[in-house]
Amino acid sequence: MRTGLVPLAAWGAGLIAIALLGRLAFGLTVLPTLLLAGAGAASAATGVASTVTRRRADRPAPGDGPHLNAELSLSSVATAAGGSLALVGISAGGEAFFWPGMGLAVLGAMGILRETLAARRELAALNDGGQGPR
Amino acid sequence: MTATARPALPAADRGALAWLASTDHKLVGIRAAVTALAFFLGGGVLALLMRSELAQPGLQVVSHSGYNQLFTMHGSTMIFLVVIPVALAFCVYMVPLQVGAAAISGARWALSGSWLILIGGLVMWSGWLTRAGAGSAGWYAYDPLSDRANTPGDGMDLWVCGVTLATLGEIMLGACVLATILRRRAPGMTMLRLAPFTWTALATSLLVVFSFPSLVVAMGLLLAERHGADFLGPITYQHLFWFYGHPAVYVMFFPFVGMVAEAASVFSGRRFFGYRAFVIALLAFTALSMTAWAHHMFTTGAVPNQLFALTSTALIVPAGVEYFDIIGTLWRGAIRFTASLLFVIGFLMQFLLGGVTGIFLASPVLDYHATDSYFVVAHFHYTLFAGSLFGLFAGIYMWWPKLTGRYLSERLGRWHFGLTFVGTSLTFLPQFFLGLDGMARRLPDYSASAGWTGLNRLSTVGSFVIGVGTLLFLVAAVRSLRQAPTARADAWSTGNSLEWAADSPPARHNFHALPPIRSYAPLYDMRNAAEGPGDEELARVRDVPVAARSRT
């Protein structure tokens, strides 16, 4: 078992089988059947996706690779805080919370985009300099 | 083997900014765990208030409305903000170490997720500041009890908002753990060489990723209903809630089983017994745990009771296999009775009561009698408190040197274990008898003629004993953090999985080098290799490159 395909697909298949059993033999209604079968299908799909992406990742980077995560990411914190504030605005706080929250979340998202682009540039520079993964 | 040069990035700033915004999975995990600990203390105080109210009939420590808020916020805090977050926090900290990765997948998501849990908790608790008080419809907030007509006030809206935020944060943490296991394993780390704890983390993250979104949907619909929409029926809500709620019970169980498995292995000096059976049982356990949710709905008459009784009862088979494996690991081992191992034994004894009474409740006939009684309260506290928390403390005492470089006092640890064991037994065992005698859960008061005073008083005394035990743990933690770090990489000299090859505490990118991975216990293999002792072997493999596929 070299990838996550087998456990995730087996687990997903198990959920789908129990959903079908419930539907056909026990008269399970539509909503619970869909919840169960949907989770099973999503799990199996995740297993397939992870296997495919891991194989792709293995090709250019079989060994050690550079670390693209920023050491600090205030943008991620700002996005979480802004999104939370906006949700509080929707729930109970009103517009006084919603709009500042949305503003902070958008600023945070832009910061994450900037961090991601900077990391890609860094990776490209490392590859050009011969230190990157081969 | 030759070392691969790692691109130089600035070392993590360990100052305040790092605690705020570091993407290091270890800091993210510690922050989530500290957040959970803070809410644990808050939720514990709420529990003591409730137990004080019930110590004898006629007491009015709080009003009836206040009591509704207490049990709602106690349950919500312990589940949404304590046990699930602390389980995920340990997964976030330990999984990259155990799979030999330099970082967690989606580090920014993990960082945001940990903040969402903290903010969600603060939003939920801010309900106390509103005129109508905090949420008061119970931790599962059944519709229509939780709609605006029956539970008016902003406090309930803030509760819904807080639950949504915390759950979103938990989904993000779970997704990062899942992606790390699937995509960042070191060379040689096949799925069947994952450490037992990592397998339980995989099971946990599957449940989180594929069942928790239904709670977000339920909360969204509930919020819409509280603001005028009318499309959420009681049965639909209960299906959506319990499709989250029952798997959540196993999210609060699997990682702690993993900790117990690791601790049993470390403190018996043996490889984990029955590894493959454990993995198969765990996957079956995970699938069954997701198909048993509607046993919470037996009394609605709207679900096929036979199906859910079958899946719920079947859970005892994989649970039995896991128990067998843990006991098999201890059997004939070179056992060291550390505080961690005492908590392992406590877990095995206490969780058994919680699990077996759960099988009683899986029978619709018995469930009809016991539902919404103190029998159910006792059952789930034996699983969640007496079970999960004993597993958690087994893990904390074992991994504390890895996390901090320091040891916790064994003497205080034994007292902590003793008080917690006695306290939980005094608190929750009487509640089985109260429930069988007809005492309904969530009662703020009872008649003196009911004959429940003695058992309730015992339960109240027990809750304060638990409180004293928890204080002892805090004292031990503070004393330990004041000492100089002394722990070696393999702090107990009998570690089996990869985290014990990293420094204590681990460096920013975890490993200087990885040992060869030929089984699920690579350090055990090294210690028992013919060519020499572990430290020399470790030194010999210092040039093995660290697997760090770090695209995010």
Give an overview of the whole structure.
The complex is a heterodimer of chains A (134) and B (552). With 134 residues, chain A is mostly helical. Chain A is built from 4 helices and no strands. The longest helix of chain A has 34 residues, at 95-128. Chain B is mostly helical. In chain B, helix 3 packs across helix 6, helix 5 (154-183) packs antiparallel against helix 7 and helix 13 runs antiparallel to helix 15. At the A-B interface, helix 1, helix 2, helix 3 and helix 4 of A face helix 1, helix 4, helix 5, helix 6 and helix 8 of B.
Give a brief outline of the structure.
Chain A has 4 helices and no strands. Chain A is mostly helical. The longest helix of chain A is centred in the last third of the chain and has 34 residues, at 95-128.
List the keywords.
heterodimer, A: 134 residues, mainly alpha, 4 helices, 0% strand, flat, B: 552 residues, disordered N terminus, disordered C terminus
Low-confidence stretches of chain A: 58-66
The description of the largest β-sheet of chain B is: none
How many distinct beta strands of chain B? 0
Strand content of chain B: under 5%
Count the strands of chain A?
0
| Global structural class of chain B | mainly alpha
Could you tell me which chain pair has the largest interface and how many residues each side has? A-B, 66 and 80 residues
Chart the SSEs and their pairings:
The complex is a heterodimer of chains A (134) and B (552).
Chain A: H1 5-26, H2 30-58, H3 74-93, H4 95-128
Chain B: H1 16-21, H2 25-53, H3 64-99, H4 107-125, H5 154-183, H6 196-211, H7 213-226, H8 234-251, H9 254-268, H10 275-289, H11 305-314, H12 316-330, H13 339-361, H14 364-370, H15 374-404, H16 410-436, H17 453-482, H18 522-527, H19 534-540
